[in-house]
Amino acid sequence: MTLDILHPFSITFMDMMNFATHIGLAHFLLLSAVLFAIGLFGLLTKRGIIPVLMCIELMLNAVNINLVAFNHYMPVDDYSGELMAIFAVAVAACEVAIGVALAFRIYRDRGTVNVDDLNSLKG
Amino acid sequence: MTDVLSFIHFIVNGVMDFLVSIGAPDLIMAGIFYLMAAVTVLSALGVVLMRNVVHSALMLTASFIGVGCLYIYMNASFMGAVQFLVYGGAVAVLIVMAIMLTRRPDMAHSNPSRGALHQLGAAIVAAVFCLVMLIVSMASPFRTEASHLGDEVKGIADLMLTEYVLPFEVAAVLLLIAMIGAIILAKGVSENDA
Amino acid sequence: MDFALTHAYLIPLLPALAFVVILAFTRLDKKKSAAIAISMMSVSFVLALLTAGAVLTDHLVMSATYIAKAVWVTIGGIPISMGMLVDPLTAMMLFVVTTVSLLVQIYSIGYMAHDPGAGRFFAFLSLFSASMLGLVISVSFIQMYAFWELVGLCSYLLIGFYYYKDSAREAAKKAFITTRIGDFGMLLGIIACQVAFGTVDFMELRSIVPQYVWSSGTSFLTIVGILLFIGPIGKSGQFPLHVWLPDAMEGPTPVSALIHAATMVVAGVYLVGRAYFIFSQLPIVMEIIAWVGGFTAIFAASIAITQRPFKKILAYSTISQLGYMMLALGVGSLTASMFHLMTHAFFKALLFLCAGAVIEAMNDEADIFKMGGLRHRMPTTFACMTIGVLAISGIPPFAGFFSKDMILAAAREVSMPLYIIATITAFMTAFYMARLLFVAFLGDVKDDCPAEETNAFMRWPLVVLAALSVVSGAAGHFLDFGEWIHYGPYHEEAIDPVIAGVSIVLTLIAYGLAYEIYVKKRWSAMEISHRLGFIYTLSYNKYYVDEFYALVRGAFIDGLAAVCYWLDVHVVQAILDGLAHVVSLVSEILSIAQNGQVQRYVAVFYCGVIVLALYGIYYAVRVLGILGGAF
Amino acid sequence: MGFPILTTIFLLPLAAALIISFLPRGAHDTVRHVAAGGTALALILTIVCYVNYDITAGGIQFMERVPWITDLGVSYAVGVDGISLPMLLITNAIALSAVCNSWHIEKRTKEFYILLLLFVAGLIGTFLACDLFIFLLCYEVVVIPVYILILIWGSTRRITKEYGAMKLTMFLLMGSGMMLVGIVSMYLMAYPAGQRTFDFGGLMLATQMGHFSEGFQIFAFFLLLLSFGSLITLFPLHNWSPDGHASAPTAVSMLHAGVLKKLGGYGLIRIGLLILPLGARFWAPLIIALAAITVIYAGYIALAQKDLKYIIGYSSVSHLGYIALGFAALNVVSLSGAVANMVAHGIMAALFFAQIGYIYEKTHLRSVPELAGLAHYMPHLTFGFMLAGLASVGLPGLSGFVPEVTIFIGTMKVYPVCAVIAIAGIIITALYILRMLAKLLFGPAVPKFASVPDEHGVDLVPLIVLGTLIVVFGIFPDLLMGVIRSTILPLEPMLDDISTAPTILDGFSYAIGGGF
Hints:
The structure holds four protein chains of four kinds.
Chain A: H1 2-6, H2 13-21, H3 25-45, H4 49-73, H5 80-110
Chain C: H1 2-6, H2 10-26, H3 30-58, E1 66-75, E2 78-86, H4 88-111, H5 118-136, H6 141-159, H7 166-197, H8 202-216, H9 219-235, H10 244-247, H11 253-262, H12 265-274, H13 276-279, H14 283-304, H15 310-330, H16 334-361, H17 374-377, H18 379-393, H19 399-414, H20 416-441, H21 456-478, H22 481-484, H23 497-519, H24 525-532, H25 534-540, H26 545-590, H27 598-624
Antiparallel strand pairs in C: 1-2
Chain D: H1 5-21, H2 28-52, E1 61-69, E2 74-80, H3 84-101, H4 109-128, H5 132-153, H6 161-190, H7 200-208, H8 214-231, H9 240-247, H10 250-260, H11 262-275, H12 277-303, H13 308-329, H14 332-363, H15 379-393, H16 401-414, H17 416-423, H18 425-441, H19 460-475, H20 478-488, H21 492-498, H22 508-515
Antiparallel strand pairs in D: 1-2
C-alpha cells in the first residue's frame, strides 16, 4: 500500500526536467497554493485590519488563478471558468469596498484598527 | 546577397531548429512563467512581511500585476485586463485610501504582526495547508495542452448574457448594494435620521 | 322484614348523606345541622332495629347470611365489590353503633351548644357513624379497609376538632399516623390474600380458606394472619400501638365517647371477629392475639390506676377492656368477645358522656383530684356514673358481669396464666373505677366548684345508656346471645359459680380498698405512691412508651430523613453538578478555539479544512483508487 | 370522518395563543379571558370525548390521519385510547386550573399566557400523537416554554431560578436526545428502506412480526428508560424535579407535576412496553428496585423539607415511584394501577401546587415554619389543602386509593419484597403530609394572616375542577378504571408471552447472546 501512495513520487531526473520545462496546469495550481498559503499566513498573523484585508485579497487572487488555469488547461468548451473568476472579482471588489468602509468606521468609532480589540464575538 | 541571405536563413533556421530541437521555446515560456510567478510570490511575501503598511500595499499591487501577467500568459487577456483595472487600479487605490484615512503616527511600524508563538502557529497551519494543497495539485492531471476556444471576449460575453444572465444581474445588484453600504458605513447614520 | 334487609345499605348511606348536606348547605347553621344529622341517624337507628328484627325472624345465622353486593370497580380483571353482608353479628353491631351514635348526637346538641363550629361537628359525626356502619356491613376486606380508613380520617378530623389547640392538632396527627402503621400491615395482609386466593370477599374466603389449610398447611396463612392482625392492633389500641388512644381525649367528649364505645376502636375487634374463619385456623396467630390482648389489658389497667385526668383514666380503661375482647377472641370465644363489645359499648359510652358532663360543669377542669362531692351538685350524673362503674367492674346484675364472666370462663378453659391475668385486670379495673368515682363524686364539695347539673339534652342520653348498661348484659345472657353470634358449634355457657364468685369477691375487695384510701383516707395516697416509688413513676408516666417512640422517631424518622436529604443535596446533586462542571470544563477547553477574535476562528477553520482535505486525499487514493496524473 | 375533535382540542390552546399574540400589550383581562376560554373549551371537548369513548371496543378511537412527509413515513395521526384519554382529561383540567391560578400575574401577562398555552399544546400533542414523529415534535415544543417560563416568572429560594431552570431543561433535553436516538433506531430497524414508518401501529406490528431482535429491544429500551425514567424521576435521575418545582411559577409546577412527569410513565407504557416488550421485561427488575428506593428515599427527603414546594416536589417523586413500580411489574393489574395513579396523582399534585401557589402569591411565604393557623382565616384554602393532602395519603373515596391498591396488588404478585418496601411508603406519606397540614393550617391563629383574603371567584376554579375530579374518580373509580381497562386488558396475552423472557437478573450475556 505504501508503494501505491508513493508511486507519484518515484520519479526520475528526466521526469523532473520535463516537469520543470513544460508549464501546465499543475504549475499554476502550485503557484496558487503557495499564494494562498502566504495569504493565509498573513491573515492569521496581522494585527491591523487593513493588512488583513490585503491578505484576503491575495487569497482571492490565488483562487482566481485556479479558475482561469482550469479553464485554460482542461478540455472544456466554453469560458465558464473565466466567467466565474470575473464574478469573483466583482464580489471581491464589493468586499474590499465594504471592508474598507468598515475599517474606516471602526477606526472612527474606536480609534483603533487592531483586530485584537475586536472580540465582541466572544459571548 | 541571396546566398548570404539564404546562408543566414540557413544558419538561423539551423539555430532555430537546434533551439526547437533542444526545446528552447518551452524553455523561454517556462522562463517567462517562472519570472512572473517569482514576482507574484515574492511580492506576496512582501505584503506579509513588510513592516510599513504602505510598502505592503505597493507589494500587493505588484502581486496583482504579476497575477494579471499570468492571466495573459494563459491567453486570458480579457481577464488580465480586468485584473489590471480592478485590482491593480481600483482595489489598490481603495486600500491606499484606507491606509491614509486610518493612518497612525508611526508609519514605519504600521503593519505589526502578532507574537512569535502566534506566528509559529500560523506558519504551521499555513505550511501544512500549503503542503496538502501541493499534494492535491501534484495529483491533478498533468496537462500542458491549452484548449482552443476561440475569441475570449466574445465567449465570455455570450455566456454572460445567456446562460449566466441571472448571476450577472445579481452581481450588478450586489455592486450597487455594496456601494450604498460602503457609503452608509463610511458616512455614518445619525440616530435622528432613522 | 325483607325491606329492612334489602335496604340495609341505607343505614350507612343516610348519615353519609347528612354529612354531604350539612357540609354543602347548612355548615354555618347549628340547629339545622343538628336536626339533619339526628333525623338521618334516627332513621338509620330504626332501620338497624328492623334489620335486627329481620335477622331474628328470618333466622339468619352466622352460617346463613344475607348478602347483596355490586361491583364497585374492576381492576385489571379483578372485580372489587361493595355491598352488604347481614348476619347476627352485623345486626348486633348495627344496633350498637346506631344506638350509641344517636345518643351521642343528641348529647352533642347540649354539649356543643356554644361552639361556633357545631355544624361542622355534626357533619363529621355523621360521617364517622356512616364510616363505621359501612365497615360493619362490609362484604370484603377491601371494602372494610376503605371504611376503616374513612373511620381513621373521621377520628383525625374529630380529635383535631379544636384545631386551634396545638395539643389537639398533635393528637389528631398521632392518631392518624399510629393507626396508619397498623393499616400498613393490614393492607399487606389483604393484598397477600388477594394475591394468594384471588379474592378478598369474606364469603368466598370462608369457603376457600379451610380447603387451603387442609391442602397447604398454615405457614403462609400465619404470616397473612399476623399482618392482618397488625391493623386491629393499631385501630383497637393494642400494645404497642395504643399510644394514640389516650391522646385522642383532646377531641370534644362526645367524640371520645363515640371513638371509645361504638366506632373506631371496636373496628379492630370486629375485624378479627369478622375474619374469624381465618384466624381460628391459625393456632399461632390465636396465641398471639390472646397474649397481646391479655398483656394490653393488664398493662393499660396498671397505667389507669395512677392517672389523674378524668378522661385519661377512662381511656386507659378502654384500652384495657379492648385487651379483654382480644383476649376473648384469642382464646376462641367469638361470643364472649362480641358480647363484651356490646355491653362495653353501652357502659363506656355512658361513662364518657358522664365525664363530658362533669368536665363541662367543671369548666374544662379534668383533674379528678380537683373535683369532689359532685354527687351533691349533679345527682343524675352521679347515679348514671355509678351504674357505669358497677357495670364495668362486673357486679351482677349489671351488664359487665355477664360478659366479663364469659371471657374469664373462656380464658380459664384455654390457659391458666391468661385467666390469672384477666382476673388481676378485673381487680385493677374495679379499683381504679372506684377511685375515679369516689374521688370525683364523694367527699366534700370544693369551695370554688362551679358544677351544676347538666341540661336535658345531655341528661337523657345518660339515662338511656344507664338503662342499657343495666339490662343489656342480663338480656344477652338470658336471651342466648351465643346462640346467635358464635363461631363453630354452639354450646351453651352457664355461669361458672367459682369464676364468678372469685371475680365478684375481688371486685368488692377493690372497692373496699379504694374506699379506705380515697374516702376514709386511712392510708395516704401520697404515701403509698412514695412507698411504691419506682413502680408508681413508671405507671404514672405510662411506662415511657411515648418517650421511647419519640426517641425512635427522632432517630429513625427525622434522623434518617435528614441523612437522606443530606445525601440528596451533597451526593446526588453534587454528582450532577460535578457532571455539569466537567461539561463546562470541556467547553472551556474547546472554547480556546473561540476567543472572539476572527483570526482564531479562521485558524481553526483552516485546521478543519486541512483535516477534510487529508480525508479527501485518503478517500481518493484508498477508496476510489485514483492516483495522481502529474507524472 | 366526523368532526375532528382531537385536532380541535390540540389546536385550541394554540389558537388562543395566536389570538393573544395579536392583542394589545395592556389588555391583561382580555388575555386571561381568552386563555381561560380556550382551555375551558378544550376541557369540555375532552369530556365529550371521554363520555363518547367506547369502552367495549377499546383501542384507539377518534383517529385522524393525514399523510405529511410520505417519503419518511410521517403522518399527522392523532387518536386516543384508554391510556391517553385519561391523561388528556387531566391535562386539560390542569391547564384550565393553571390558567386560572395565574390570574393575578401582572408581569408580562401576554407573554406568560402565550408560553403557557404553547406548553399546554405541546403536552396535549404528546398524548394525542399516534405517530412517533409527532410525539417527538410535541415533546420538543414542551421544553422551550418551560425554560423561559421559569426564567422570567420563577422564584429564587435555596437555589437560583436560573439553576433550577437550567437543570430541568438539561434533563428534559437529555431525555429527548436519548428518546430521539431510541426512536430513530426503532424506525430504522422496523422495516427496510421505503416501507419505513413512524406510525405507532406500524411499529407495533413490526414488533409482533419479530423485526426487533431481543438485543435491540434491550438496547433501545435502555435509551427510553434513561429518558422516561428521568421524567418519572426514578431514583438517581430525580434531582431535577424538586428544584424545578421550587423555582418554577405555580402554573408550571402544576403542569410539571401533574402532566409532564406523567409523560414518562405514559411513554414507558406507550412506546417502551408496546413496541419493545422484551426490552421492558429485561429491565423490569431494575426499574422495580429503583422504584422502591425512590418511594422510600424521596419520602424521607420530603420529611426533612421545610419549603412547601420542596415537600410536594419530593412527595411527587415518591409517588411516581409507585407508577414506575406498577409499570415494571408488567401485569394487567399493576399496569392499570400505574395508569390510574398517573391520573390520580396528577390531579392531586396539581391541586396541591395550586393551593401553595395561592398562599405564596398572597403572603410571599412558602416555608412551613413561617406559616401557621391558616384555617382560621381561609376555609376554602384549608379545604383545598385537606382534599389534596388526603388524596395524597390515599384515602378511600378520593382518587388516590384505588390506583394505589391496584398497583400494590399487581406488584405483590411478582415482586413481593419491593412491594412491601413500597407499601411502607404510605406511612411516610401520611407522616409528612399530616405534619405539613398540621403546621400550616392548624394551631393557634396568627394575627398577621388575618388580612390575607381567602380564595374567592376565579381562585376557586382549580379547587372546583380538580376537587370534582378527585371526588368523582374516588367514589366512582370505575369511570376511570373502565376506560383504562379497555386498553390494558387486551394486552394480557402479550404480557403473558413476555413473562418468561429473560430479565436483567438472568444476566446480559444470555440476552445479548440470543439477540445480537
